[in-house]
Amino acid sequence: MKTAIVTDSTAYIPKEIREKWNIHMIPLNVIFGNEVYQEEIDITWPQFYEEVRTKELPTTSQPPIGQFVELFEKLSKDYDAVISIHLSSGISGTFQGAVSASKMVDGIKVYAFDSEISCMVQGFYAIEAAEWASRGEGAEAIIARLEELKKSARAYFMVDDLSHLQRGGRLSGAAAFIGSLLQVKPLLHFENKVIVPFEKIRTRKKAMKRIADLLGEDVSGGEEYRAVIIHANREEEAEVWRQELSLLYPNVEFVIGYFGAVIGTHLGEGAMGMGWMKK
């Protein structure tokens, strides 16, 4: 059985890794006024953070269903099945778009997978699925593997300015108001597929230490983990943090990821986070 792997652009998997593992990508859109950009195709993350400094905050949109249908039909010529891995259905309709498109395509079985998360943690699922597919594993075995990984998947992040999340409807107005009033750096995480506050912390430094401690709790058993440090235009800070954490947790393989255009629209520049799962 030949299985294709699809994900969306918010997994933020570097192009060379997508090409290495033959991972197909459906882009979400970021919209500045009348200009629509497909993220990771028309606009890179550095370009995005440059643009938002001189323009009004953009809006975002999920891929049209037709884009899914077109890709699935193309893949049906060479594959028996597709596993389509997407950002949390609680913050975007992208997963549902894949589900709807799957019912409109003949000749290929589509398995839509809700990662219930986003960014490179979502990317970890896609890479793992692609590795399994390259060995000829069947789609149902791959889905079972992804569900197993989900048990250990975590992500925590903090934002510099809660107004982006409030404006985009991803966090309640009351939480944003309280955060800005007290100058707290709330830790946020995904719970039941949506973004909710985890803890209120007063400074950026303490917030990052708390995230590191949460990782430490999960990896204390000595099992091997993979982790990603995710930044919103804070690449140097992320690299320093990666070096510090690599010394603290030798059983964790760290990579650096980023909040790209779509997720960056809702979090704002300066956001920092980390996600991980068992290998």
From TrEMBL:
Keyword line: Lipid-binding
GO molecular function list: lipid binding
Pfam families referenced in this protein's UniProt entry, alphabetically: DegV
Protein's name in the database: Fatty acid-binding protein DegV
Lineage of source species: Bacteria, Bacillati, Bacillota, Bacilli, Bacillales
